[in-house]
Amino acid sequence: MTAGRSVAEGAGATSSGHGFQPAARRRNRIAAGVALAAIAIGGNLYVYSALDASEPVVQAVRDVPAGERITADMLRAVDVDVDSTVNVIAGDRLDSLVGLYAKVRLVAGSLVTVEALQPTPLVTAGTSVVAIQVADGSLPIGLRERVPVLLVVPGDGSDTGAGVVSVAGRVVGSPTDTSSALGLQSLSVDVAAADAATIAAADDVRVVLVEPSEDPAAATAAVAEEGEP
Fold first, then answer.
1. Whether pLDDT at 63 is above 60
2. Residue 134 has what DSSP assignment?
3. Residues 72-92 pLDDT 10s
4. Where do the DSSP E strands lie in the chain?
5. What is the mean pLDDT of residues 55-84?
6. Alpha carbon distances (Å) from 9 to 1, 6, 20, 116
7. Angstrom distance (rounded) from CA 89 to CA 110
8. 180 with 140: CB under 8 angstroms?
9. What CA–CA distance (Å, rounded) separates 194 from 23?
10. Which of 82, 170, 184, 218 is in the most buried spot, having the most CB atoms within 10 Å?
């Protein structure tokens, strides 16, 4: 009895002396769990810090056609996190934008850039805006607001092309559908005032898209102004 009791007491002493010893595989799992928890905490901290970096910028509240004068109810300031390379307008400049003109169409919900606004009206002295009707599908691909175009009035159909008229212009507004059963679209174009009657009286006008880097309508208007007394 004495020998057996001594062995049992020795085993108990050994167990209580060293405590619980987890296996090596279990220790690895515990370490991996701690590492994953640390990564998750670090990710949350990064997200929160990114949210704190948002700044107020100007956003369009509703659709604003090109050429429209900006009023206070068209824009607002919103907090967003945008890349520094995006040329947005700071929210604290919101009041100073009232009275400017939309250079291109501003879509509701979009952020307003510096290039989208200008201080002067799109239609200047010496020019006129003419609305022409064109067949659906006859407009060239890439046509958009403020791009230069040539308005071509077909001639008499002869080989010499007699009677063909070509007028430089610039698109003022995007094409809109008409109530015509023929599927016609209405396109507003800015042309020199001297050419407005020719285009308005034409029954058939073809639209040709020219190089975006050129602006024949502006050049024509400048020449007309220089010739005025």
1. yes
2. E
3. 999 999 998 877 777 889 999
4. 55-60, 75-80, 101-102, 117-118, 127-135, 148-153, 165-177, 184-192, 206-209
5. 89
6. 12, 5, 18, 89
7. 12
8. no
9. 94
10. 170
Each residue of 135-154: pLDDT tens digit? 878 888 888 888 899 999 98
Q: Rounded to whole angstroms, how far apart are CA atoms 117 and 108?
A: 15
Q: How far apart are the first and last CA of the chain?
A: 133
Looking at residue 71, what is its pLDDT? 94
Contact between 169 and 151 under an 8 Å Cβ cutoff? The reply is: yes
Please report, for residues 45, 51, 77, 108, 200, the alpha-carbon distance to residue 82 in angstroms, rounded to integers and kept in the order given. Answer: 19, 11, 14, 18, 45
What one-letter code names the amino acid at 193?
A
Bridge partners of 130, per DSSP, are 189
